[in-house]
Write a structure and sequence with these properties.
Chain lengths: 257, 293, 291
C-alpha cells in the first residue's frame, strides 16, 4: 500500500450560489501518475486552485503528507512540496529562460542579506549552484540552447516546457499539471509522456488535468472523473474507459485538442 | 446653523457627484483612471468665463460653451493619447500616467494664459436673488447649481439604464471584446463617452466657480482628489455610487469644516479615502478593477 | 590652469545647489524605481521625503543631534511609517494602491501643514547648511550599490516575478507580501535620507515641496529615464532637474514642457530613454554586430 501524498476529503466549493464542487473525495498516492478528467466547466481547475491555496474550500479537508493545507498561503504550500503549471501558461515573459527557472529555485537559495550585499563566497557559491541547476533542468526539457533568450520569444510548446522546468525547480514532491499537452503536436506529446514517466520513476507524484484521452489513458495509473462538481467515477484507465456514467458524461465525445 | 450647513453641503455635494459621474463613466467604460479630469474641469470654468467676459454671452450659453470646450478637449485626449495606448494593450497604469501629463500641460497652459491670480465671474452675470426659508438663506445661485447637477445626473442615469445606447455602454464596461463581437461600435462609443464625461466635468467646473466665485489654474487638482475619494467611496464604475459618494463627501466636508477645523476638512476626504481603500477597495457599490478583455 | 580653477569656483558658487538637487532627485527617482521594480506604483515617496526632511531638520534644530545621526533618523522615520501602513496598503494592487498612496501622501502633507512644531504653512527656517557634495555623492553611490546588488540576487528576481505575475510568483514559494513590504520600506528609507540631505542644503523647507505634484515629478523622472535599470532613473532625474533651469525663459510654461515630456515618453518611448534592449537592437542594426 503506497503512501498517500494528497488526500482530498468531502471538499466543496461555492461561488455565491453556484456550487462548483460538491463532496469531492479522492487520494493521490506517491510515486504515481493521477489524472483528473471531466467535461469543460466540471470544476477541475478549481480543485487545483484549492490545493495550491489560491482558493479556500467551503467544506472538507485537503491533506498533504498527512498535514492539512487549509488556511495556508500559497507560498507555504509550495514550501511543503507542491508545484503547479497553468492551463494558460504563466511564465515570466520579460525574463530569460535561465532566470525563469532560477525563480523556481528561490526557496533553495540560502544566503542572507550580508552575503548579498558583500558578494561573499557563500553567496557566489549559492548563485553558481543555482545557475547550474537551472541549466540542468533546461537541458532536461531540451531548452538549454535557448537559455539566454527572453521567455516571450518562445513558441507555445517551448513555453510549456519552460513552465514544466520551472515547476520542477521548486523541488516538489507533487507536481500539478494543468492541461500539459494542450497545443502540442503528437511527437511533442510522446516526448512529454516519457518525461512524466521519468519523473514518476524518480519518486515524484504527478497529478494532472487533461482533455487528451489517449494521453491520459496511456499515462495515468489512476483516474478520477469530475462532472458538474462531483466525482462520478474513480479507478484505473480500463475501469474508467468502460464506465457507463463516464461515457454518458462525455456524450461519446472524442478526445483530441 | 445646521440647516444652512446642510444646504451648503447639498450644493457642494451635488457638484462633487456631477464631477465624479464623469470620472467614473470613463473608468467604467474605458477602464482608465483619467487624471486629467480635474484639469478639464478647470478648463470648463475658464472657457465659461471667457465667453461671459469676451463675448458677453449669457451664463446659460457660457455653460454650454464650457461643456463643448471641455468635451472636445476630452475627446482629443482620447483620440490622441488614450487610443494609441489602447491599441498597444498598455497595462492599466500607463494611460493613467499619460493623463497626469495632460493634466500638467493644461494647468500650465492655463496659468501661462490667465495668470495664477484667482479670477471671478462679473457680479452681474450671476443669478441674483435670495430667498429666506425659515432661518436659512437660500441663494438663487445655489438652487440653480443643485438643479442643474441633478438634472444632468438624471439624464445620464436615464440614458444608461433605459436606452439602447446605455445598454451598449454597459456591455462595453463588462467586456469590450464581447461588445465588439456583438456589433457594438466600441471605438466610437469610447470617443463619445470621453466627450460626454469631460463635458460633465467642464460644467461642474463652472458650477463650482460660481459657488465659490473663484477660478484658479490649480483648482482642478484638489477637485480631482475629491473625485477620486468619491468614486472610491461609492465604488469605481458605479453611477449610483458617484451620486451617493459625492453627496456624502460634500456633507462630510462641510460638517467637519463647520464643526471641527477648516483645514482638517480637506484631510477628511483623504482620510476617508484611505480607510475605505483599506477596508473595501471596491467601494460601497463598486466592482473589481480587472475585467475580462 | 588657475583660470580653470577660477571658472570652476564661479560655476560652483552659482550652481552647487542645482548639482546637489540633481543628486537628491536621482535618489528619489531610484526610490520610486525600487517600488516600481516590484510592481508597486507608490505615489507616497514625496511624502516620505517630507517626513525625512522634517524629522531630520527638527532633530538638528531642536535636539542638536549630529549630522550623521540626523541623516539616519531621516531615513528611519519614514521607514517606520511605511512599515505600519505598508502591511494593509500593500494588499491593494495597481490603481487602488496608487490611489491609497496618493491619499496617504496628502494626509501627511496636510498634517504637516497644520502642526505647530513643523511651522505650519510657513515651514521650517534656518536649517544649518550641513550637507556637502561628498555626502550626496556617497549616499547616492551607496544607494546605487545596494540596489544593484539586490537586483542581481534572488531578491531582485523575486521582485521581477512579482511585478510580472503575482500568482505565479506565489507558487514559486515567494512570500509576496514580505517582498512588497521590503521594497516599500526600503524605498521610503531612501526617500527619507534624500529628504534629510535636501533639507540641510536648502536652508528652508515647507509642506508645498512634498505633495502630489512632487510625487508626480519623481514619477516622471523615472518613467522618462527608463525603468529597466538603475541608469534610467538617474538619467531622468538629471534631465528633469536641469531642464526647468534651461527653460527658465518659458516662465509658467515650464511645467507644460514637463507634462508634454511625460505624455510623449509614455506614447513613444514606453520603456523610457534608457532601454538596454532597444539600444542593443539599434546597435546591432547599425553595426551588424551581435552580442
Amino acid at each position: 500500500m503506497s503512501n498517500t501524498l494528497l488526500s482530498i476529503r468531502n471538499v466543496s466549493k461555492r461561488f455565491g450560489g453556484l456550487h462548483v464542487l460538491q463532496d469531492v473525495n479522492f487520494e493521490v498516492p506517491a510515486g504515481s501518475i493521477y489524472g483528473l478528467i471531466g467535461p469543460n466547466g466540471a470544476g477541475k481547475t478549481t480543485v487545483f486552485n484549492l490545493v495550491t491555496g489560491l482558493l479556500q474550500p467551503n467544506g472538507g479537508n485537503i491533506d498533504f503528507q498527512g498535514e492539512s493545507l487549509l488556511g495556508l498561503p500559497s507560498h507555504r504550500i509550495t514550501h511543503r512540496g507542491i508545484a503547479r503549471t497553468f492551463q494558460n501558461i504563466r511564465i515570466f515573459k520579460e525574463m530569460d529562460l535561465l532566470e525563469n527557472v532560477m525563480v523556481g529555485l528561490h526557496d533553495h537559495l540560502e544566503y542572507g542579506t550580508l552575503g548579498l550585499l558583500f558578494n561573499t563566497p557563500g553567496y557566489c557559491r549559492a548563485e553558481k549552484k543555482a545557475r547550474e541547476r537551472a541549466l540542468e533542468l533546461l537541458t532536461w526539457v531540451g531548452l538549454d540552447h535557448k537559455a539566454d533568450l527572453l521567455a516571450d520569444s518562445l513558441s507555445y510548446g517551448d513555453q510549456r516546457k519552460l513552465e514544466f522546468a520551472r515547476a520542477l525547480a521548486t523541488e516538489p514532491k507533487l507536481l500539478l499539471l494543468d492541461e500539459p499537452v494542450a497545443g502540442m503536436n503528437p511527437s511533442e506529446k510522446t516526448v512529454l509522456m516519457e518525461e512524466i514517466r521519468n519523473i514518476r520513476d524518480r519518486g515524484y507524484g504527478v497529478f494532472m488535468i487533461e482533455h487528451d484521452m489517449r494521453f491520459v489513458m496511456g499515462l495515468c495509473d489512476r483516474i478520477a472523473v469530475l462532472n458538474f462538481g462531483r466525482i462520478i467515477a474513480e479507478g484505473n484507465p480500463d475501469q474508467i474507459r468502460n464506465n457507463p456514467d463516464v461515457i454518458e458524461a462525455y456524450l461519446g465525445k472524442e478526445d483530441d485538442q | 446653523m445646521l440647516e444652512q450647513q446642510l444646504l451648503n453641503a447639498l450644493t457642494l455635494g451635488s457638484v462633487y457627484a456631477l464631477f465624479a459621474l464623469g470620472f467614473t463613466l470613463v473608468f467604467g467604460v474605458l477602464a482608465v483612471i483619467n487624471l486629467s479630469h480635474g484639469a478639464l474641469f478647470m478648463v470648463g470654468s475658464y472657457a465659461a468665463l471667457a465667453m461671459v467676459t469676451r463675448f458677453n454671452a449669457p451664463l446659460w450659453l457660457a455653460m454650454l460653451g464650457a461643456m463643448l470646450v471641455s468635451g472636445t478637449l476630452g475627446l482629443l485626449v482620447d483620440v490622441l493619447v488614450l487610443k494609441p495606448l489602447r491599441l498597444r494593450n498598455a497595462p492599466h497604469l500607463i494611460p493613467m500616467i499619460a493623463t497626469i501629463g495632460v493634466s500638467i500641460m493644461l494647468t500650465s497652459a492655463a496659468q501661462g494664459l490667465f495668470g495664477a491670480e484667482a479670477m471671478r465671474f462679473p457680479e452681474e452675470t450671476l443669478p441674483a436673488g435670495e430667498y429666506i426659508v425659515g432661518d436659512v438663506h437660500v441663494r438663487a445661485l445655489e438652487i440653480a447649481i443643485v438643479l442643474i447637477s441633478f438634472i444632468l445626473m438624471a439624464v445620464m442615469f436615464t440614458i444608461l439604464k433605459r436606452t439602447q445606447l446605455g445598454r451598449a455602454l454597459r456591455a462595453i464596461s463588462e467586456s469590450p471584446k464581447a461588445a465588439w463581437l456583438l456589433g457594438i461600435p466600441v471605438e466610437r462609443l469610447f470617443h463619445a463617452t470621453s466627450f460626454v464625461a469631460s463635458a460633465l466635468g467642464g460644467i461642474a467646473g463652472v458650477l463650482i466657480a460660481l459657488d465659490f466665485n473663484a477660478i484658479t489654474p490649480g483648482m482642478g487638482q484638489p477637485m480631482l482628489h475629491k473625485g477620486v475619494a468619491v468614486i472610491i467611496l461609492g465604488g469605481m464604475g458605479d453611477i449610483r455610487g458617484a451620486l451617493i459618494g459625492g453627496l456624502f463627501l460634500g456633507f462630510a466636508e462641510v460638517i467637519s469644516k463647520a464643526y471641527l477645523s477648516s483645514q482638517m476638512g480637506d484631510a477628511v476626504a483623504f482620510g476617508l479615502l484611505f480607510l475605505i481603500l483599506l477596508v473595501r477597495p471596491a467601494g460601497l457599490f463598486g466592482r473589481q478593477l480587472e475585467r475580462k478583455a | 590652469m588657475s583660470s580653470m580653477a577660477t571658472w570652476f569656483n564661479d560655476f560652483w558658487s552659482t550652481y552647487s545647489t542645482l548639482v546637489f538637487t540633481v543628486g537628491v532627485h536621482a535618489m528619489m527617482a531610484l526610490s520610486l524605481w525600487l517600488t516600481l521594480s516590484c510592481g508597486l506604483l507608490s505615489l507616497a515617496n514625496a511624502a516620505f521625503m517630507g517626513i525625512g526632511a522634517y524629522a531630520s531638520a527638527l532633530l538638528t534644530l531642536q535636539a542638536g543631534w549630529s549630522f550623521p545621526a540626523v541623516l539616519l533618523a531621516g531615513g528611519v522615520a519614514p521607514a517606520l511609517v511605511a512599515l505600519v501602513i505598508g502591511v494593509p496598503v500593500l494588499r491593494l494592487s495597481g490603481v487602488y494602491l496608487a490611489m491609497a498612496t496618493l491619499a496617504f501622501g496628502e494626509v501627511v502633507r496636510i498634517t504637516i501643514l497644520n502642526m505647530d512644531i513643523t511651522g505650519g504653512p510657513e515651514g521650517l527656517n534656518g536649517i544649518p547648511l550641513a550637507t556637502e557634495g561628498w555626502h550626496i555623492l556617497l549616499l547616492l553611490a551607496l544607494t546605487i550599490y545596494v540596489l544593484h546588488r539586490l537586483r542581481r540576487s534572488k531578491v531582485g528576481r523575486a521582485f521581477e516575478s512579482i511585478k510580472e505575475d503575482e500568482v505565479a510568483a506565489r507558487l514559486m514559494g515567494i512570500n509576496v507580501a514580505r517582498y512588497k513590504l521590503l521594497a516599500f520600506v526600503l524605498g521610503s528609507f531612501i526617500a527619507g535620507v534624500a529628504g534629510a540631505l535636501n533639507a540641510h542644503f536648502t536652508f528652508f523647507i515647507s509642506p508645498r515641496e512634498y505633495g502630489f505634484e512632487n510625487a508626480v515629478d519623481f514619477l516622471t523622472m523615472t518613467v522618462l529615464g527608463g525603468t529597466s535599470g538603475l541608469v534610467g532613473p538617474i538619467l531622468g532625474g538629471t534631465i528633469l532637474t536641469l531642464l526647468p533651469e534651461l527653460l527658465r525663459f518659458l516662465h509658467d510654461f515650464r511645467s507644460l514642457v514637463n507634462g508634454a515630456v511625460l505624455v510623449l515618453v509614455v506614447l513613444f518611448l514606453p520603456k523610457g530613454i534608457w532601454e538596454p534592449r532597444r539600444v542593443r537592437a539599434w546597435w546591432v542594426r547599425r553595426t551588424g554586430v551581435s552580442k
